[in-house]
Design a protein that fits this description.
The protein is mainly alpha-helical and 348 residues long. The protein has 13 helices and six strands.
Length: 348
Amino acid sequence: MPIYRRGKTYWIDISAPDGSRVRQSAKTQEKNKAQQLHDKLKHELWQVSHLEKKPERYFDELMVLALRDADGQSGYENKQIYARYFIDYFSGKELSKISGERITDAIPTHCHRTRKPLSNATKNRYRSFVMRAFSLAYKNGWIDKIPYVPLLREPKVRVRWIEKHQARVLIDNLSHDWMKAVCSFALMTGARMSEILTMRWESVNLVGRVAVVTADNAKSGRARALPLNDETIDLLNNLPRIGDFPFTANGDFTPTINRNDFANALRKSGIEDFRFHDLRHTWASWHVQSGTPLMALKEMGGWEKLEMVNKYAHLSGEHLSRFSGIVTFLAQSENDKLSQPKVSLVSE
């Protein structure tokens, strides 16, 4: 039967001209609406077969395509949230009928739980996910063009870092030894909090002077090596071996830092507007100031794109000042005048 019921919902069963069969829910309890959808799909299948028309694709298929592409990438759980949100908005819609304007209107403006307004950065993450999906659809020949959705303007990137003498005072003012170790390691390697706290002793090679951030713990989803200098080696050698994790409060896995200890140490040190992640910014800033090339810093820090490292580029200007005297022209002009031979005019 071309139209039948499963429970209260009507389903469609169509034989396509090429011999294939299409079975899907009509998503309605009304038979006349199911009949309309049946006739529409059957007409489209005939056009695909006889007029070489592209088969129509639906938004639900697009989200499946996007999530398959994102599988294994960092932030996959967030992308699932984005997919569920957009499916609620566009489920059952034909891709060719979804305009850039409709996508722009669909991007959320408030958090669905707290109802607080979303920042432009968060809105842009929703936008990036759905635009990546349409880009994949275009590459697969599902659509003829990618809808245009404008990118929202975001505030300038915040880079907060401290001087080395401030860092030493901050470490001294921490009350817990394991917190001193965690913060010192962050300043020495630029590792993120989650990468430090999930690190196991088996990933640390003191002889080879390297620690490995495994792929399942790295934000980018790709493993990377952390080079260990003499200070970092000494730090690790002095840590108690009381469990699988080097950086722990009691030998077991510690999911986060002691935020009260960190906040109190900042207050005692007179350091304001500073977060734990700013230890990573500080490490990167010190490297740039010492002349580390941005490409090398990108690999060491595990950033995916060079643009993420360019925010530190301005810090290297101070250390290029020693080269500023190489090219001159005013002083050279005076020297040229002094070096020119004197010419006397003798009348004959």
